[in-house]
Here is the input.
Amino acid sequence: PPTPSPQPLTPADPLDLVPGIGRKDVHAFRRMGLRTVEDLLYHFPHRYDDYSSQKQIADLVVGSVETIVGEVSETRLAGGPRPRVEVSISDESGTIKAVFFGQPWLTKQLPVGKMIVLSGKVGAYGGLRQMASPTWEPYVPDSDALIHTGRLVPVHPLTKGLLDRNARKVIKQLVDAVAPHMPEYLPEATRAQAGLVGLGHAISQIHFPDSAETLTRARERLGFDEFLFIQIGVVQRKLLWQGELGYQLRLHEDVHADLQAQLPFALTGAQQRALAELFSDMARPVPMARLLQGDVGSGKTVVAAASLLQAIANGFQGALMAPTEILAEQHYKGLKKLLGRVRVPRQAQQEAEGETWRDRMSPEEAAQLAEIKALLGMTAEDDMDGEGVRVALLTGSLGAKERRRVLEGIAKGEVDLVVGTHALITESVRYHSLGLVVVDEQHRFGVEQRQRLRDKGFNPHLLVMTATPIPRTLTMTIYGDLDTSVLDELPPGRQVIRTRWVPRSDHAKVYRHMRKEIEKGRQAFVICPLVEESEKIDLPSAEEMYEKLQSEVFPDLRVALLHGKMLPREKDQIMVAFRDHAYDILVATAVIEVGIDIPNASTILIEGAERFGLSQLHQFRGRVGRGQHQSYCVLIPHKANDSSAERLEALAQTSDGFKLAEIDLQLRGPGEFFGTRQSGTPDLKVAQLADTRLLVAARAAAEAILGDDPQLAKPEHALLKQKVDAFWVEARKAG
Here is the structure.
């Protein structure tokens, strides 16, 4: 009987079923997480060797990488300490020698008369040109059949025991067999609108490009796909959130004017623009989801306060969540001060015909309200005849009895504004009518935590704040489900922090400057990249620096140590003590990056400065210059090189955090921008986050597709939905 023809391979087939792959190679691919044909098709090269320019032997130039086609005219095995095979290859213009080390079997594979293609670097030995260990393959007249030579040759990521020739050969086999038949999941209209090549062509050309131009087109198509999967995910999240009914909060202009009258300064144009966007969002019957980005010192807290005040004036509660107790306490004090003299109408509790909420209170309720006001530290003056804003601080360190009473006050609506840490989203917290949630330093919280906080109210409005300026492309990926407001203006009179980078040999000068500042009554930060000394990395550690400063450099001053391995309570105690001037110098690691307000600190010294990203250094710099004193930021690189010098010089020359963030993204890439696990940016194999044009096109495509089919439920979107779901499963696994 005739032998049945083998079934064609499909993307879902396991690698074991691929004819011609040895078990050893299958196991090697598995170790890299590659189990199916599709996995291998998406295992893209990380670089390409350009062997595409074929030359005559006589025209070869020593030092260049070249490709030739010739006939083997001699093959011999040479002995000596390093046995080698020497092969002479000739064409009509001349002869060149190729030398291969440790591969004696090549004497059989390269017999005299065989036509081969050879690619490699042209060297010279004993005055004669030769190629050492070049790549080669049999010459086939059809140039498309070349895999290892004579073209842009892909170099794929490998693992131990896997040879690049073997990997390339298997991938070429799969690309030829499967890529042309891969089902297209992009809608035809989307492809046409963005001017993209087909999927099969892109897969084929990214592995074995015909030219630099076809490689660019392949990367563009596959990069667009990755951006599209991200944008469909975040736009769906936004549609889901804003598809619910929310509270319509009307603007109480009198309350807003009252707040502005209490401020010791006028709002900047950027603050007014951001507030107009926020008030407009909150007036709509869908929940707001907005990101407020502001550079260090741009006045985000005032914008948050004005928004929270409007929620309270509409009869709702507000919540503000910060990443640490000390930041929560800082916000609590700041908000109490800002809102302490502003009256809010108790409209939600007023009745018709002049009868007020006070008239309807029982003596027991009145006593409870008086108790909660006392617990919140409100005087009769603060209360303003019942129209004062009631602000509570809720952190893990609150005593059990006080905590119970504050929780009760929140549940009954006696508290207008709750400020706290993660404690705000624990099971025990019940809100009476949560209207607006403000989350500070959002990159410290995950999407799930944000969702838990939202679930505490009936779709409350959400404002997310970050003091880390983020490039537009990162904003569209990490925060793609949020609308964005930007504070890119500093309040007038904000002083410039003098920034310099100096060599390690200038330590003594820097210490003299610190002593001079401390003698004036100021305080200083010293930042180190490591907590403790490391055998592997020669870098300044906080523990070493603390010992050195306290015992050798400043034995007469008060030095404290703060690092991430301490318990949260210990860290808070040290920060509070430093704020209250119990210490002159605080030696710390990156834990002090966010939001700490010490107006008396005037100098920050950053050791091993080249180890930090520009955005992080800019955040450190923002820890000083918060009072009326001239402030200084001194950067000391541990090992200076050209690229670190360029980055540190950029920081010294500009105080614009948004400009620095763009430079940082170009120099270091997205993974390191926040630290990979914090960023929430899925792993991008092809797309470059610097490519704003492609990302904007993908966003527009996602909005168009979801505008027509929000759940991707239509049959023509079934394949696309499958790809998007698989992409986000992988992204969540990656953290």
